[in-house]
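Rotation project, supervised by the postdoc (A.L.). Task for the rotation student: set up a whole-complex structure prediction and record inputs and outputs verbatim in this book. Inputs entered:
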Amino acid sequence: MAGISDPGFDTLALHAGAAPDPTTGARAVPIVLSTSFVFENSEHAASLFNLERSGHVYSRISNPTNAVLEERIAALEGGSGAIATASGQAALHLAICTLAGAGNHVVASSALYGGSHNLLHYTLKRFGIQTTFVQPADIDGWRAAIRPETRLLLGETLGNPGLDVLDIPTLSSIAHEAGLPLLVDSTFTTPWLMKPFEHGADLIFHSATKFLCGHGTVVGGLLVDSGRFDWHKSDRFPELNQPYEGFHGMVFSEESTDGAFLLRARREGLRDFGACMSPHTAWLILQGIETLPLRMARHVENTRKVVAFLVAHPMVAAVGYPELETHRSHALAKKLLPRGCGAVFSFDLKGSRAQGRAFIEALKLFSHLANVGDCRSLVIHPASTTHFRMDDAALQAAGITPGTIRLSIGLEDAADLIDDLKRAFTRAEKTA
Amino acid sequence: MKLTVHGRQGYAYTGGKPFDPELPCVIFVHGAVNDHTVWTLLARWFAHHGHSVLAVDLPGHMRSEGPALKTVEQMADWLLALMDAAGVTQAAVAGHSMGSLVALAAAAKAPDRFTHLGLLGSCVPMPVPQPLLALSKQDVAAAVDRVVSFSFSGLAAKPSYPGPGVWLHGAARGLMHQVMRAQGDALLFHTDFSACNNYQQGLQHAQAVRCPAAMVLGQQDQMTLPKAAQPVAQLLRAQVHSVPAGHFLMQEQPDPVLNALRAWLSMPALSTQA
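Outputs recorded:
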């Protein structure tokens, strides 16, 4: 039953976590640029530090503006709460390092954003956390890769850059059979296109830099908890269900059945790693989220028109968009992404590397840069940029060829975008 | 803290400090399809301010072994047995929603064992709409959604519970789903809400209570309407505290509820009055 306590998505995008400011009457969310917050007295101070009362102490741990953003993304995802971080990378790091330490192991999709691949394959290995990469559709491979020391499964709702749709219902079942959570990067889809918790995922992270912010202005991340994973039951998570010396012997799963993970992540991860979000950044991401439903509908509408144009173009060898029947994830996309498959996709250009370069350099509306999810349309060549550290085998495993070009479709007039692409194809053709 | 109660393992959270039976004890009893974590902040505050605390998981809920008990009176008997197991002869008891009925019944069954009675988010009797009971058997997730949608007064409770960044509606759903799943009892929701609906002795029990009582009510509570609390409040001659919240008032307004319970425990205790 819809009502004031149970509104729809568009209403939550505007109101969840925010009310008129009780002090000033401000209707928009105030930006609280204060590092710290005054205690009422010594007893109040002690009770805040000891989790006897709720409130803000220091903005690395929590901040009123950030809290609005955290509650809002949790509401939109159907989760129990969230933590705002300095970037999407910081959110991924916070999630993994809340659950895993030296000697532990992660099973991850091989179709990941290059930055996530770097973190798992190179950096975390240096700190004793190993990762086994599995093709997203290799269900038996996921199951076989789980070890006693595994702490989580990780994938992207739409794998980068081939847009393999993650089979969240199946993978969450595999994870749960092993007593493990499934962590999902939902950056490309946002909760408007898919709510991974409804399909069984336990944790979500976003690069809020992308569609959530939507305007290419700030870098930020969000880590969201479903509140439904039973950390108490599993013997794999002593960080959550055994006393933590770093916080007076607190057992986080005893303190909060639905919020143990976020408590630990905030009380240890934000406190010690310190990758918090600026309140100003939080405010800009909130501004973006307020129009997320409108923007995502337009992103998808424009993308479908551009995809249709590319599919019919003679210089295009292939278009990798899961709404196309030719895409390997088409059936899964119909099931999990009925509203659309986002606005980031790749296509393979016929011709030489020089033609590829000419194509990108001829574009006027599409900006050549390393980002996606802007309101403006973007283009990049993954093999020479985002995935340049991968060798040929890893590139092939991720579905990337030397001729692959990735587009992020913005909110311009679709006809203007198609005209820009036509011009670039003509230039590429003349370069041959 | 684990305790053996009626031959089965019971659990009570002690507020982040070891339980000390020598200190004045406060017992907290959660509501339907909840567990002790709805009391975390209050339990920690009282445990660190001169009290011993037992925030229980009722049988069949999270850490206390099932099966879930089917009547409020059975739950009250279990609570008294838990006090015996913990070596507590006398305590203050506060309950929320279904837990308030358990506290009331226990205080009526053993009036000398309670120094204070606190009823939060409560009314007596506590009828449950038949469509909700039926829904809980057909589609328990929808029943949870229904309860959550009626249990909060707005979309921005600050500073949130147990800390900033928690979306209370989602946390309430997460908790209820975990409690139902913990012991695989698909009918737990129906059992708990039926216990509330079937408890008809509340006003009679209120007349047997001897200790001072307080009620803490949410001004926008749509589950247990404040006006429906008046009869039991009058019978208990209860101190009534009204806080700007819905039914899940400990989560929506933790500080006003703490202030109300501090005032409640400052009332002269039963042993002092006797």
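Student's summary: Chain A touches chain B through 56 residues (CB under 8 Å).
Supervisor addendum: Chain A has a mean pLDDT of 94.
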